[in-house]
Amino acid sequence: MDRRAILRLAVGIPFLGVGGIVRPGQAEHLVKPVAAAARPPAALRTPRLVMIDPGHGGKDPGAIGHAGTYEKDVTLDLAKELALQLRKTQGLNAGLTREDDHFLELGERVDVAREAKADLFLSIHADSAPNANARGLSAYTLSEKASDAFSQALADKENYADRLGLDLKHTKPVVADILMDLATRRTKAASLVARQGIVRGAGRDLRLLENPMRSANFVVLKAPDIPSVLVETGFLSNRQDEALLRDPAQRKRIAGILARELATLLASPTFA
């Protein structure tokens, strides 16, 4: 069963195993026949859908560089170019959580991706780093405990609210817990694969941050049923990175590299 099938069972098909408990591995043969009539999982859709999230926006400018570069402008331009290249050169579908300069709460960004049943959620950023010398691309997955103080500092700056958005209130608590655990395990594993693929692939052409694969408790990565990665394309707190990200030609180049790696990633068995 894929992630979305598991969650469909959680929110719409109550069932019990022996003694009222469903053990891992029992779920598939306990599903009622009506489940077969449910809409097929989004993972079967062609082309695959990447939901791109340009960080910040509106009243939230994000980081502001030494030359006055606003993170919200950099991320929006990068996200639009990435979506364009995914559609035109890679044959993938791409959506944006925002297409102009307006503010979205973190939970709303997650909701947009989940409602679209995206195959991958990619949040684009160009933050201010705790260390002004830090520069280069890096990627982050969700973890309750940050991999390091650097990642924790970034997450603390990004998190305004903590809202998961999954409604399991009509499901028996034991069943809901088991199904949520199954779904989030699969999602976490796919997110790690995505992070590794993006970093290793992009690293052939782009400068990487030291230890570029990190994790922290980013609210925007908390969709339980969609693999999610936050990519720092560079840091506006670093003058060299800012100069790079201010250049439209360089932003287009970065978008092209990310599009190439995302296409490779979504063609892999992990996302089948």
TrEMBL record:
EC number: 3.5.1.28
UniProt xrefs under CDD domains: MurNAc-LAA
Alphabetical UniProt keywords: Hydrolase
Gene3D superfamilies: Zn-dependent exopeptidases
Signal sequence extent: none
Residue intervals of the MurNAc-LAA domain: 110-258
A single GO cellular-component term on record: outer membrane-bounded periplasmic space
PANTHER family: N-ACETYLMURAMOYL-L-ALANINE AMIDASE, N-ACETYLMURAMOYL-L-ALANINE AMIDASE AMIC
Official protein name in the record: N-acetylmuramoyl-L-alanine amidase
